Structure prediction request, 210 residues.
Amino acid sequence: MMKLAIASLLAGSAAAFAPVPAARSSSSLGAFTVDDMPGALAPVGFFDPLGFATDADEATLKKYREAEVTHGRVAMLAAIGFLVGEAVEGSTPLFDAQITGPAISHFPQIPVGWDLIIVTAIGFAELQRALVGWVNPKDAPVDQPGQLRDDYYPGDIGFDPLGLKPEDPEELNLMITKELQNGRLAMLAAAGFLAQEAVDGKGIIEHFSS
Prediction:
């Protein structure tokens, strides 16, 4: 089952890692509602068993989708990182090839200073995302923190170096759906990797070879 999940993840990685810079205004893709949101596929359709979206307004739905697409992107990088990090273990010039063991133990082995650089880079990336998508805290109502800009489409941080964004709205919705589906699979895969390595202390690659 785990092998099937990983194979599916890797098969769709090309489309999944293509950032989906949708139009900067939600109006270009229609109103941001449950009925119009990309990401729903037959036979499941719009999957919301706990009813989070039932009474949510457009602003709340956009925050839910922003959280989903961002976590999906991080999970796709994490799933690939698990496999690549363990596959090159002991054969890379980085850190004198001293980092070994399951992927969940790699970060604590990074030399002092490098961990700070990594955390700083992550913080800078998050700051840029916040500047693009979020209302300045001083301009937001006190009782409504963390508001997204009205003209911001969830996930559209303006990053499309390969020019993959389709001009056709239907093709764009299809690409958004592909990213969401691959991100959802990656979140399950990454969670499975973490749990498996935490339980028996063996790397994912080691499980395949055993």
Q: What stands out?
A: The chain has six helices and no strands. Residues 1-30 have pLDDT under 50 and may be disordered. The helical segments are 2-11, 13-16, 58-87, 114-133, 169-200, 204-209.
